[in-house]
Amino acid sequence: MALHFIANTAARSTSGQTLPVIDPANGETFDTLARGNATDIDAAVTAARHCLDTTWARFTAAERGRLLMKLSAKVAEHADELTALEQRDCGKPVKQARADALALVRYFEFYAGAGDKLHGETIPYLDGYSVLTWREPHGVTGHVIPWNYPMQIFGRSVGGALAAGNVCVVKPSEDACLSLLRVAALAAEVGFPAGAINIVTGYGHEVGDALARHPGIDHISFTGSPRVGTLIQQAAAERHCPVTLELGGKGPQILFDDADVDAALPFIVNAIVQNSGQTCSAGSRLLVQRGIYESALQRVGEAFTALRAGPPAMDLDLGPLIRQSQQDRVRGFLDQARADGIATVAQGRVADEAAASGFYAAPTLLRDVPVDHRLAQEEVFGPVLSGMAFDDEDDAVQLANATPFGLVAGVWTRDGARQFRMARRVRAGQVFVNNYGAGGGVELPFGGVKSSGHGREKGFEALYGFTTLKTVAFRHG
Ligand code: NAD
Question: Which of 174, 196, 225, 468 has its CA 20 to 30 A from that of 434?
Answer without folding.
Answer: 225
